[in-house]
Amino acid sequence: MKYKGYTGHVEFDDEADIFHGEILDTNDVITFQGTTPDEIKSAFHDSVDDYLEFCNERNESPEKPFSGKLVLRMTPELHHNIFVHAKQSGKSINSYITDSLDKISNYG
Asked: Is 68 left (phi over 0), alpha (psi -120 to 50) or beta?
C-alpha cells in the first residue's frame, strides 16, 4: 500500500484473525491494524496522517531515511568489470549501476 509517499506492509495473523501492518519508509516504528481490507487501509492512512501531524506539532521534518546513497562492497574484480562495462556504455559507474538496478526493480 502507498499513501503520501509512504509504503505500508501488511500481514494477516490467522490466529488473531486480524491484519497488522507497519510503515516501511521510516526508522520510526509506525504500525496499524484492522479486521477487513477497508479497515486496514483506513488505519494505514490514519497512521501516516498522525505521524505527519505529530512531526508538524514538534516542528520536525518527517523522517526520510533514504538519502539515495548506498554503500556497496564488492570484489575488486567485480568493481573492475562494472567500471569497464560502464565506460563501454559511456556512463559513470553510478549511472551504470543505477540504470541496471532500475531495469530489474519492481519499482523502476
From this structure: left
Residue type, 74: M
Judgement on whether residues 43 and 79 belong to the same structural domain of the protein: no
Are 87 and 52 contained in the same domain? Answer: no
Q: Are 40 and 10 in contact (CB under 8 A)?
A: yes
Domain interval for residue 28:
2-57
Smallest CA-to-CA distance from 28 within 4, 59, 3, 61 is with: 61
Among residues 17, 38, 57, the one where a domain terminates is 57
Q: Under a CB-based contact definition with an 8 Å cutoff, are residues 44 and 51 in contact? A: no
Question: What is the biggest distance separating any 2 CA atoms in the chain, rounded to whole angstroms?
Answer: 56
- What does the pLDDT look like over 11-35, one tens digit per residue? 999 999 999 999 998 888 999 999 9
Q: Phi then psi for 82, rounded to 5 degrees? A: -65, -40
pTM of the predicted structure, to 2 decimals: 0.66
The single-letter DSSP state of residue 107 is T
